[in-house]
């Protein structure tokens, strides 16, 4: 006997369950990736450093800005 207020959610999953599953799956995947990484911890941290990330981003912005500035100099075809 079940009341009318109770609903069975057997066929669907809630958003909360999906988010939780994604977080758990991501954590498991990241752990496995770190265990099988070909680099040492020091090398991995150096590769993932924030400074390096920012420097590469700044360099990309400079390249795009330079190419946009040079496009203005080109005649229309």
TrEMBL record:
The keyword Zinc-finger does not apply. Keywords: Membrane, Transmembrane, Transmembrane helix. Coiled coil: none annotated. The keyword Cell division does not apply. InterPro entries: Desiccation-related_membrane, YtxH. The chain crosses the membrane at residues 18-37. This is YtxH domain-containing protein.
């Amino acid at each position: 006997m079940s009341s009318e207020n109770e609903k069975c959610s057997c066929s669907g999953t809630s958003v909360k369950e999906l988010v939780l599953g994604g977080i758990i799956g991501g954590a498991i995947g990241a752990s496995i990736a770190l265990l099988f990484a070909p680099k040492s911890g020091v090398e991995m941290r150096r590769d993932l450093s924030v400074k390096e990330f920012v420097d590469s981003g700044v360099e990309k912005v400079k390249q795009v800005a330079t190419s946009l500035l040079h496009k203005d100099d080109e005649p229309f075809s």
